[in-house]
Design brief:
This protein has two domains: about 140 residues, Diaminopimelate Epimerase, Chain A, domain 1 (Roll), CATH 3.10.310.50; about 55 residues, no CATH class. About 50% of the residues lie in helices and about 10% in strands. Strands 3-2-1-4 form a four-stranded mixed β-sheet, with helices on both faces. Helix 1 packs parallel to helix 7. The longest helix has 21 residues.
Amino acid sequence: MIHTDARFAEAVETAVTRLETLTDAELVVVAAPRSGSYRDVVAISAGVVSFVFLLLAVYSPWAFSPLWLPLDLAVVGGLTAWVVARAPGLTRRLVSARRRKAQVDDAAAAAFVQEQVHGTRNRTGVLIYVSALEAEVRVLPDHGLDGRVPRGEWNRIRWHATALDPFLKGLEQVGDVLARHVPPVEGDNPDEIPNAPRVRE
């Protein structure tokens, strides 16, 4: 996952520090391992696999002891739940794209408030939220940028949410957009928000 890359925090902080010298905006990067718990997906997967195992046990030509069957089902269900919960790629395939998008949207909106991206003097904060399991990135600009940066600019940025170097290229594109539309005010460009990325556990 991108946020577990040993270079992530230092590389992102260095990039944000440099990019903020080119713009009056403030960048905040938040990296999360996932945006939803998906416990229901884990439970349903365990239930389905256990049910399939039960059918195999009932209709199999081999004999299964009825005394051990409940324990067998519990072990199969538990192992399935353990695997699904610890395999982000598998979980991603079991969750619909629509739900993943909704989870990332909600988590990004919450992070925008939690990290006080809206707290800059001119309301020129920009949240860049990257969610590893869903492999998605959201860019949320504050209201002070609405009339200055065309919405289409954000949509043209190409992101890669699972590897550091392509993610940094996306970050550079954000910096280019901000440098064009929100250049720094000479002699008045304070660093209002710390540049280190916020890494969720």
